[in-house]
UniProtKB/TrEMBL annotation:
<keyword id="KW-0812">Transmembrane</keyword>
<keyword id="KW-1133">Transmembrane helix</keyword>
<feature type="transmembrane region" description="Helical">
    <location>
        <begin position="176"/>
        <end position="194"/>
    </location>
</feature>
<feature type="transmembrane region" description="Helical">
    <location>
        <begin position="103"/>
        <end position="120"/>
    </location>
</feature>
<protein>
    <recommendedName>
        <fullName>DUF6545 domain-containing protein</fullName>
    </recommendedName>
</protein>
<feature type="transmembrane region" description="Helical">
    <location>
        <begin position="73"/>
        <end position="91"/>
    </location>
</feature>
<feature type="domain" description="DUF6545">
    <location>
        <begin position="245"/>
        <end position="394"/>
    </location>
</feature>
<dbReference type="InterPro" id="IPR046675">
    <property type="entry name" value="DUF6545"/>
</dbReference>
<feature type="transmembrane region" description="Helical">
    <location>
        <begin position="6"/>
        <end position="22"/>
    </location>
</feature>
<feature type="transmembrane region" description="Helical">
    <location>
        <begin position="34"/>
        <end position="53"/>
    </location>
</feature>
<keyword id="KW-0472">Membrane</keyword>
<dbReference type="InterPro" id="IPR050039">
    <property type="entry name" value="MAB_1171c-like"/>
</dbReference>
<feature type="transmembrane region" description="Helical">
    <location>
        <begin position="140"/>
        <end position="164"/>
    </location>
</feature>
<dbReference type="Pfam" id="PF20182">
    <property type="entry name" value="DUF6545"/>
</dbReference>
Amino acid sequence: MSDLAAYLGAAVLVALAAYAFAIERRGVRRPIRWAALAFALSEGCSLALLAPGTVALSHAGVDGLSVIALGDTVRTAALSFLMLLACLLTPHPAPRHSPVRQATVAIAVQLGMVLLFVAAQPTLDADDKLIAAPSGRWWLAIRVVLFAAYAVWALVELFLALLPSARIAPTGPLRWGVRLILAAVCVGVVWTLWSYDDFVRVLQVGRLDGSEDTVSNSLGALCATLAVAGALVGKWTETFGAAGRWVRLCRCYFAMGPLWSALHEAMPEIAFPPGGRPLLVGRPAGIEFAVYRRVIEIHDGRLVLRAYQDAAVSDWLSSESRSSDAALVEAATIAIALENMRLGRRSAAGDGIAAEANGEAGPGGAGPGSVGLIPTDLDSEVRWLSQVARAFRRSPVIPALLERLRQEADSDGRQLNRPA
């Protein structure tokens, strides 16, 4: 279980570092991101090096003391990168946040860790525990305290540097990302303070776990998971937003289908030449092209139908239904214009609307049956035409109006055919 937690945390951090490195190579290089990348990579490598399974390789001929020393060195370097990140994130840095001063402190801590390790003269027992020499027990204990103090200092500085961003981040996802990273910092403090038992054990029996125990590795895996989630929550939000937009555009595309089919059946010339199958591309650009092309084709059909619009649509709707929904009025106007076109009936108001569309002063003007487009941008227009298409397909009022129109057409035809 301890190995699983350690290697899982290491894999998560190394994967995050590789992902961040790929992004940095394509974009603008920022010192803050490079510091975070270096911390994630160093911490992930230290988790893997100090895992019990890695230290146990000493039984297969690997120098276990060298593995532990290397793991501690990499882990201390991770703390130095964390301190550098805190310095870069501080808006008004104090003198202690100077990168040069922090680099000096980092080098001093690294040298101190190495010298204390050598002074302790440790050895590995059969259980992969570090056993300090009789004269090196205090040196090993001081080494544990030095690392814990440096880690808590770096984590507190990072917490203080990130805390203002949790309140002033411009968007909700960014705020939640900062909060998750703050939670990871808090877990990191608990993870570091858990080493108090190592200090007590070294002073009592001169023995120290060469690798992290189960609790430490579990806290490390939790810290890594929270840090990765906080770093990626903004990117996930963009991905989910793009997927949600793709779903909405697909829904609008299919919602406009019945209206487009009715117009295309009456006027096949409104359809552009086929341009592939953009719905299967799986990218927002493909579905956007398909949706906007459908919008243009619907509008081309509506322009042709202007000469067949009936000015009495609003009056008919008032008699059939009390609804004054603009989408229903537009849908009814299109449906009646299509029926008039099928019957070959051009209206005087429709001729006036068509003349006005061509820049002429038609006698009928726009007419009460013509409903102008409400939206002013393409996305709003897509939503508007989707509402019109739903009303065109679902409203029970439109079939009643069409039946009334057919009855009037039959009555007019009988009167024309009656002998004088």
